[in-house]
Amino acid sequence: MTGLPVHLHTRVREALLETRPLDSDEALRAMFADDSLSPWQHGLPQATSRDERTDKLIAYLVGKYRADTHENAMVLLLGALIRHIDPADALYGRLTTLSNELALELRDKSQPHSPTEGPRTSMLRDFASGLREQVAHGNVQFALDRLRNYIGVLDPALCSQIQADVDRYCRLRRDSEKGELSSRKVESEEQLLLETLLALLPPRLVQASAEYCPVVPPNFVVREKYLSSPLPFERILGVNNLKQIAWIQHGLQASKSVCRILTPEGLATGFMIGRGLLMTNNHVLPNASLAIESLAEFNYQSDFDGNVQGTCRYKLDTARFHTSTALDYTIVGVSEAAEKPPLASWGCLFVNANADPVRGEHVVIVQHPNGGLKQIVVTANQVTGCWQHRLYYTTDTMPGSSGSPVFNDLWEVIALHRAGGHLPVNSTGTTQFINEGVLMSTIRPDACDYWPELSDRLAP
């Protein structure tokens, strides 16, 4: 017996079997060159197989503690392994959770226990209980957000894991709404996520001392103390429209890459996608001969005082020209100009072909309506549906908005705006007064070598 509960021993063993240092005795000894593990480097057991090596290692480390810090050797091993794993890897989250649980299970019993519980620790315990209750009632997003907001003060590394869980939950919900996952698969994935969340609570919050937690967890003012009649609590009404302040900054940065297209036939909108390439509609630039007479104009917008800022115009490079009438998009190069800022200064947008939205999802459009100053639409913008390569959404646009990027809430371009009005929205010919864009997921296969890869993005 290792001194661990059976269920915990099994999970630790399974996780260790997936790590590279358990491949051989040599690799394991190299791992123990880490300063935190060096006291046990020369006593490591030898083995002839990965399974045997894992079992012997667990038995060897479980009862050992550093003399100076009183930290358990098994917990320190998991910490060293975590530092060598990509946070995006699922194993990173599993090892982090196990490390937290083991830290509680294997704390040095010979050392004095933490100080008597005071008001701060009591509040932490209540905070953890409240999160558990939210999870039990299905309010996973709310619990994840609160945990992330608080834990960020204590442990930035763990905060990154919480953020990964938040993103994972959002992807799970979106895939579920799109029908890409079976209900059984959704329930299984969601349950695993909830177990991971709950496993983080006890070691990081309930057992935390006042020294480890310099701030108390966020609580609500009990308004009944001050009001003669109780009021209902605030709540999210329908879609959650709350945004971090940084969201606005991200939007301002993204808007730099949106430009006005000046052609002999009219005005429109376009945006940079990387490698000095610009995307707009086919009906804006249907051929290279028109593109060679056109310009891309950046920074045509007003400043804080309402004054029009100085603009920069660039010629288009028709040696790089690709278009599709069916999908109504054009990708064309933009030429550098010696007397103008480098194209890199305008940055480029991240076009995501793997993020088709679902009904009700929020979208944002940055545009040059009527060919005028750059504007943004952030309210009353919701996806109403998709049909073939088309995305339908409610928002305000005007002539001149053609070629604008349609963003999701992560400021990723998910569609190319192309039209608005009474448009057919299904195969039966039903029309609706709506806006229409072309999904990036349908443009990508057609764009071939013109599609930007992540490594092609220009630094702003």
Question: Can you tell me about this structure?
Answer:
It contains twelve helices and 13 strands. The protein has 460 residues and is an alpha+beta fold. Helix 1 (6-16) packs antiparallel against helix 5 (90-105).
Topology:
Elements: H1 6-16, H2 25-31, H3 50-61, H4 73-82, H5 90-105, H6 119-136, H7 140-154, H8 156-177, H9 183-206, H10 245-255, E1 258-263, E2 266-274, E3 277-280, H11 288-291, E4 295-298, E5 312-324, E6 329-334, E7 364-367, E8 375-377, E9 382-387, E10 390-394, E11 405-407, E12 413-424, E13 431-439, H12 440-447
Antiparallel strand pairs: 1-2, 1-4, 2-3, 3-6, 4-5, 5-6, 7-8, 7-11, 9-10, 10-13, 11-12, 12-13
Helix pairs in contact: 1-5, 4-5, 5-9, 6-7, 6-9, 7-8, 8-9
Tell me briefly what this model is.
The chain is of the alpha+beta class and 460 residues long. It is built from 12 helices and 13 strands.
The helix-strand sequence is: HHHHHHHHHHEEEHEEEEEEEEEEH
Under CATH at level 1, the class of the largest domain stands as Mainly Beta
Mean pLDDT: 79
Q: What is the CA-atom radius of gyration, in angstroms? A: 28 Å
Label the structural class. alpha+beta
Fraction in helix:
25-40%
